[in-house]
Specification:
Oligomer: single chain
Order of helices and strands: EHEHHHEEEEEEEHEHEEEEEEHEH
Largest sheet: 7 strands, mixed
Low-confidence stretches: none
Number of helices: 8
Structural class: alpha/beta
Length: 328
């Protein structure tokens, strides 16, 4: 196993990690950037960029459907979802390639693997580029993953999370979405534009429960006009696979059936098994890393940014925090 020494080591190459790495490099520091999956993190590869690319195509379908209102009559229109999915993949690949070029241009050393702290100044990389790294400062930007639930665990064939559903190349005729938060509503809107029968099943009394009630009501009206079924106050006991798809069994005996389902009930923080306890990094009661206004954790010289250290799970917030951490 190779041993390396750097001024700064950043664990996580998402929208919090790579801006931190670039900023530190631009400040004249030697920087190691450790990433276990694709460079760019969730936002670029499994979130914002692929979903918005699909939505851009779906919105074209929606506009064409209304063309007759303007006297434009279009016949024989069809959706080749496999081609749309391929376009999505090309957009992601192009942007990721550009990001990797930017990282290389700033002379940042990339390690492909899982980074784990072994002390406040040391970490080991397990995977393709196995290494033992010593660093004067460490920035944690490990992000989050889709949250699994015991009653409806992902099988990635019929029961999907927000990552696996992006990999589909064919569309179901009907889908139900468990969770009426931002992710669930985004996919509901996407699939409704593409002509899929959609139902949202939400445990709480309204959609987007963390947003203003006016926003929730407006979205409910919009979804109703577009034929999206919204069921709130629904307590799902389990989801089972059937010969034709999946079935959600709800408290009280009601069931919902579809070809597949998306489980979008939140995300889990990547703060386990990465050595935070060994380094002495403390967590808040909600499981997030405790940081100050400089994004420094309870351990001097160890910083945390992005989803693991912010109540705002937004890419641009993570990037801003990454820059703050690097400057400090």
């Amino acid at each position: 196993m190779q041993q390396k020494k750097f001024d700064v080591a950043v664990i996580g190459g998402g929208p919090g990690g790579y801006p931190a790495a670039i900023r530190a490099a631009q400040r004249g520091k030697s920087v190691a950037l450790i990433e276990a999956k694709e460079m760019g993190g969730t936002c670029l590869n499994r979130g914002c960029i692929p979903s918005k690319t699909l939505i851009a195509g779906a919105e074209c379908v929606g506009r064409l459907a209304k063309a007759k209102e303007f006297g434009l009559h279009i016949s024989g229109m069809s959706v080749d979802y496999k081609q749309l999915a391929s376009h999505k993949d090309r957009v992601v690949e192009r942007m990721r390639h550009g990001l990797e070029g930017l990282i290389a241009a700033n002379k940042i050393t990339v390690f492909r693997g899982f980074g784990k702290l072994v002390s406040p100044r040391e970490l080991k990389v397990m995977g393709q580029d196995a290494a033992w790294i010593a660093a004067d400062k460490i920035i944690l930007a490990t992000g989050s993953e889709p949250r699994n639930a015991p009653g409806f665990p992902f099988d990635y064939k019929r029961i999907h999370d927000s990552t696996s559903i992006l990999a589909l190349t064919t569309l179901p005729k009907k889908i139900f979405i468990i969770g009426g938060g931002i992710i669930g509503c985004e996919f509901a809107s996407l699939y409704a534009h593409l002509g899929i029968e959609v139902a949202i099943l939400e445990l709480l009394p309204r959609l987007l429960s963390t947003e203003a009630e006016e926003v929730s009501r407006a979205l409910m009206r919009s979804f109703h006009k577009r034929g999206i079924q919204v069921e709130t106050g629904i307590n799902i006991q389990e989801v089972v696979t059937t010969e034709t798809g999946v079935e959600a069994r709800v408290e009280g005996g009601k069931t919902f059936a579809a070809e597949c389902c998306l489980v979008a009930i939140g995300r889990s923080l990547n703060t386990k098994d990465n050595g935070l306890d060994q380094a002495g990094v403390l967590l808040e009661s909600n499981g997030m890393v405790k940081v100050d206004e400089k994004m420094q954790t309870t351990v001097d010289g160890v910083y945390a940014v992005g989803g693991i250290a912010s109540k705002w799970w937004l890419a641009h917030v993570a990037s801003h925090q990454g820059i703050i951490a690097a400057d400090n």
